[in-house]
């Protein structure tokens, strides 16, 4: 199935191009957000001894939860507009890569987009290399939501006034990537791949592939 993803932005993008129903999209996004929270709780549980019960200077250095569980944060030299554009571009790169590989007609005809994991992985890697020092590299609203919520549960508020960029930017990128894919890149892409069946002769040997 092509609608599986750990990012609400990618799931929304796939929904916009007709690869996922609205009901399934909502269920996936809810699961992604819950998974991000659960994962952040696990990280906190595994690293709690780094700060809990330690000397005050150690706890102030490490933080509690330790290192804010990797919560995103905008570089102090940037403003919200800069961060929004960066998050938009990083997510757009990811979404358009997913659409151009997983949903490419040649890959669909073969039934297995073999090059998709390599291309998608490289897109994610490139986004992280560029964005980590600038925005912390969100490009996934669930990845932003989980650590931020768990930090709030611990009494550590990381929700800055610029945090909207990690949600608005990726979701707007979903619409942009879906629109580009449907209107310019693959406007006549078939909605579904025809299934095939093997016709056999009386001896049981395959003769030809036929569409069904």
Question: How would you characterize this protein structure?
Answer:
- The protein is mainly alpha-helical and 212 residues long.
- The protein contains eight helices and two strands.
- It has one domain: Glycerol uptake facilitator protein, CATH 1.20.1080.10.
- It has a two-stranded antiparallel ribbon with strand order 1-2.
- A hairpin with a 5-residue loop joins strand 1 (196-200) and strand 2.
- Helix 1 (8-16) runs antiparallel to helix 2 (22-47).
Pick out its properties.
212 residues, mainly alpha, Glycerol uptake facilitator protein, two-stranded antiparallel ribbon, 8 helices, 59% helix
Major beta sheet summary: 2 strands, antiparallel
- The CATH homologous superfamily corresponds to Glycerol uptake facilitator protein
Please give the order of strands in the largest beta sheet.
Answer: 1-2
> Helicity level, as a percent range?
55-70%
Count of discrete alpha- or pi-helical segments spanning 4 or more residues = 8
Low-confidence stretches: 191-201, 207-212
Number of domains: 1
Residues in β-strands, percent: 5-15%
Radius of gyration, CA atoms, in whole angstroms: 22 Å
Order of helices and strands: HHHHHHHHEE
Q: What is the terminal separation in angstroms?
A: 20 Å
CATH class: Mainly Alpha
Task: Briefly summarize what is shown.
This protein is mainly alpha-helical and 212 residues long.
List the helices and strands and how they pair.
Elements: H1 8-16, H2 22-47, H3 56-62, H4 80-102, H5 105-110, H6 116-135, H7 141-153, H8 165-185, E1 196-200, E2 206-211
Antiparallel strand pairs: 1-2
Helix pairs in contact: 1-2, 1-4, 1-8, 2-7, 4-6, 4-8
Protein name: Aquaporin
Transmembrane segments: 21-45, 84-104, 116-142, 162-180
Organism: Hondaea fermentalgiana
């Amino acid at each position: 199935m092509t609608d599986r993803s750990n990012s609400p932005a990618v799931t929304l993008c796939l929904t916009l191009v007709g690869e996922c129903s609205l009901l399934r999209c909502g269920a996936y996004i809810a699961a992604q957000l819950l998974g991000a929270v659960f994962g952040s709780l696990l990280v906190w549980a595994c690293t709690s001894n780094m700060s809990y019960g330690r000397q005050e200077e150690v706890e102030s250095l490490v933080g509690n939860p330790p290192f804010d569980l990797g919560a995103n944060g905008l570089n102090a030299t940037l403003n919200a507009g800069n961060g929004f554009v960066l998050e938009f571009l990083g997510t757009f790169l990811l979404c358009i890569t997913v659409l151009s590989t997983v949903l490419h007609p040649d890959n669909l005809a073969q039934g297995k987009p073999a090059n998709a994991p390599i291309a998608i992985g490289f897109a994610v890697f490139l986004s992280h290399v560029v964005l980590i020092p600038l925005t912390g590299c969100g490009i996934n609203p669930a990845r932003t939501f989980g650590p931020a919520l768990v930090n709030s549960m611990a009494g550590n508020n990381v929700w800055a006034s610029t945090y909207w960029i990690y949600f608005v930017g990726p979701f707007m990128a979903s619409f942009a990537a879906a629109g580009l894919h449907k209107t310019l890149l693959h406007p006549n892409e078939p909605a579904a791949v025809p299934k095939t069946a093997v016709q056999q002769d009386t001896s049981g040997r395959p003769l030809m592939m036929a569409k069904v």
